[in-house]
Amino acid sequence: MEILTNLEAGFAVALQWDNILFCFIGVTLGTIIGLLPGIGALSTISMLLPITFYMDPTTAIIMLAGVFYGAQYGGSTASILLNIPGTSANAVTCLDGHPMAKNGRAGVALALTTITSFVGGSFSILVMIFLTPYIARFALEFGAAEYFSIAVFGLIAASTLSRGSALKGLAMVVVGVLLGIVGMDVNSGVQRFNFGILELSDGLSIVALAMGLFGVAEILSNLLRYSGEPYKIDKVTYASLMPTRQDIRDSTPSTVRGMLIGCLCGILPGAGPTIASFMAYAAEKRASRHPERFGTGVVQGIAAPEAANNASVQSAFIPTLSLGIPGDSVMAVLLGALIIHGIVPGPTLVLEQPQLFWGLVASFWVGNIILLALNLPLIGLFVQILRIPYDALYIAMLFFICIGVFTIRNNVFDIFVMLGFGLVGTFMLIARFPAAPLLLGFILGPMIEENMRRALLLSRGDWLTFVDSPITATCAVLSVVSLVWSFWSPLAGFIGRARDRRSNSLGSTGFD
Amino acid sequence: MIRRSFIALATAAFFAGPVMAQDYPVRPVTVVVPYTAGGATDTLARVIATPFGEALGQPVVIENRAGAGGAVGAEFVARSDPDGYTLLFHTATVAVYPTTQPNLDFDYARDFEPIMLATRAPYVIAISNKLPVDDLEGFIDYAKEHPGELNHGSPGAGTSTQLAAELFKQQVGIDLLHVPYGGSSAVLTATRAGEIDFMVDTYLGLKGAVDGKDVKALAVGTAKRQAFNPDIPTFEEQGVQGIELAAWFAFAAPKGTPKEIVAKLNTALHEALKNPKVLETVEAQGEVIGSTPEELGEQVNMEIDLWAKVAKEAGVN
User: Which residues form a coiled coil (chain B) (predicted)?
Assistant: First the structure.
């Protein structure tokens, strides 16, 4: 019952006109950037960040979160109509979505992905409603040793689960951890690796780093490949948006499996929507009696991954909001946004800022309903956006990104940091080094160090503090298992291969 | 330098001829807040800015230049033209820089013209509910019986909040292990959970936990009880003499700002601090001070020596 009262209060917040408006702006922008290949939710959120400074924090987070989950809706549209994934999480949707479009069933494919997206998202919102307050209350008792263990597990999971080579993933984590060390050490007050530069004494700006590695690198690498022509949209018929009864019957079990896989992947640190959609597709193919028909335009092949990626973007908020530990790079930047607004994510957020937490949860539903309305009838309109010439778009984006990074601290230095990491990120893309583990290492590394030293202070130097509570012991076991698993598991191998195959056939965009 | 003075001269000439204090201000005044937008210091500065601007007859614009515990913004103002159009809103942290960041390129006495110590927010001593004591004397006795066993949480090594707590520990002669966290709210969460036994913070941060009886507030660091919670007794009432623990907020201008302008700013600030909205914000965390420029200068000088001594004794580098 407590949950119902909380939800009611949440809807009271989410249904204020300004929150509806900004939720609408967020999900619309999300749909658009999801649709545009090569522009991710992360760069959009970072660009919007400075605009939100003088907004109410709840409204700000509602809008920024809307961009994130809205992008998953738009992304599938590009996959189906163009055979180019709008975001990397929609890459698998190409495999069956585009053949459906070629078979004259584009309308059905779009309707189905939108509906399964909604179902997957809604399921995770429900899980979030029931799980988050519980985890938060539980986490209030967490001490430094527990946070250390969870963060270590998160980091290991993030590096090993991420893309392709586990070794490259680990290497990037290490680079991220090293970058995270820059600045003042909380434990001693000593400045580390700041090279006498005052601007580095608080460490590198997370927004500058994320914008460089994702936003700028995205733009630069696209420009390297971009031919100058706008995307060609294949002729598709919107004759019927209505899936047949058979379609519904075929896709329902897939949707359910997809949303379960997705929800779990979202909660697990490091997995995220891309891995969720790949795993869901793989599971469908394995479960099917006709695996050979996958790739020819079967509804299972779009329902499962779309339910999965939407479920995972919603459930990703659970660890971020209840523990203050981000599961992926977008969550890391949203976490940064909360901190800029003076809100410290962690167990106390749910309990002390109920209007923010429950308002956000309620807004997810408002946003998902808006997305349903946007994506079904207005899809033809959105597709026109793909006609924007990319060279104009990229220059404009670069410009806004620079303004955005500058505004956060009114500091030109951060722009150079961002551009520097933009070059590094472009190189990483070409050399296929994943950027997401680097960003997580950057966030979780200092968290691990601080909590380890704190735990040892509190235990007066006794290392057993890291294994002697149920939570720390479980995390220690999980960490070891996932390390071992990542190097030998056939599943890890599959994800690696699937990603390689995708990047070979689709070019090497690939952003989480 | 030549170039900068040239620009300064040119700017001044363009706007008002040579710096003429009697005409000041003829354009908006920028107040640099060396912390991020939305934080406690920024909020206070913004509340004061509106009536401050009204009293001056020109708008007061807040500019956030965060970084290095406020040193980035302070250095920016120290290097700005001393024409009264760029001011610094600073905290007691300026008196800690010489101890914790000795390599900084500026010095308060050399580079700033104090304007006014505007308001202060007393530190409140809070302890975990898990401790079997209910007042300050009880806590001091308990800590003395368990030397080195209790944990003192702070928002970071070398922060003014840590040093205030160290001063208290030295004054009453108790030995607690210092455990730094990444910020005040993390310390509070740990104190609620019982991981940390002792902390100090301003009332702004503690209010929710004190009202919800999640921690025990033992004492307020000023001579008088405070309006924000008159139930919290003072140090002196509980037998601890000779120390005051309070965060404070002040305005300063770059060195060389004409005396007349400083006086004008001080008068305008006095006016602004009477504003009901300002009073409401200030009284939720402490009290209005409204000092003279000289008093602010003396306070900073006194605290520079004080914190150097406290830090040395506490072993903070």
Answer: none
- Yes or no: say if A80 and A97 are a contact pair by the CB < 8 Å rule: yes
- Pick A140's closest partner by Cβ from B39, B156, B192: B192
- Kindly report, residue by residue over A102-149, the tens digit of the pLDDT: 887 888 888 889 889 999 999 999 999 888 888 887 777 788 898 898
* pLDDT, average across residues A433-438: 84
Asked if A347 reaches chain B (Cβ–Cβ under 8 Å), the answer is yes
Q: What is the pLDDT of residues B5-53, one digit of tens each?
A: 444 444 444 444 445 667 889 999 999 999 877 678 988 999 999 999 9
Q: What is the ipTM of this complex?
A: 0.79
Range of the domain at B16: 2-121+246-314
Residue of A59, A184, A207, A407 best to disrupt the B interface, most CBs of B under 10 A: A184
Query: Closest approach of chain B CAs to the CA of A458, in angstroms?
Result: 7
In this predicted structure, what is the pLDDT of residue B95?
Answer: 93
Report the number of distinct structural domains present in chain B.
2
Q: Output the 3-class SS for A179-196.
A: HHHCEECCCCCCEECCCC
Report phi then psi at B121, rounded to 5. Answer: -125, 105
- Of B176, B203, B238, the one marking the end of a domain is B238
Q: Which residues of A touch B67 (CB under 8 A)?
A: 198-199, 201-202, 409, 411
Q: What's B172's domain CATH number? A: 3.40.190.10
Q: pLDDT of A136-155, one tens digit each?
A: 877 777 888 988 988 888 88
Pairing of strands B246-254, B177-180: unpaired
Q: What is the CATH number of the domain that holds B263?
A: 3.40.190.150
Distances (CA, A) of B273 to A504, B18, B56, B115: 66, 31, 13, 14
Angle (deg, nearest 10), helices A106-139 and A91-100? 150
Specify whether the CB–CB gap between A292 and A108 falls below 8 A.
Answer: no
In this structure, are B64 and B148 located in the same domain?
A: no
Q: Give B142-186 pLDDT, tens digit per residue.
A: 999 999 999 999 998 888 999 999 999 999 999 999 999 878 888
User: Distance (Å, rounded) from C-alpha A193 to C-alpha B243?
Assistant: 38
Judgement on whether residues B135 and B206 belong to the same structural domain of the protein: yes
What tokens were used for B109? 């006495």
| Distance separating alpha carbons of residues B11 and B160, to the nearest angstrom | 38
